[in-house]
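Risk register update: the risk of archive-format incompatibility is retired. Evidence:
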Amino acid sequence: MLRHQVLNPEWFHSVKQAKEAINTWLNE
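Archived output:
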């Protein structure tokens, strides 16, 4: 299941944005 999602650029981009948002929130 995750293997198919990893191949999805849109899903990967969403995860990247989510991680950046979490990092920003933790740093504040």
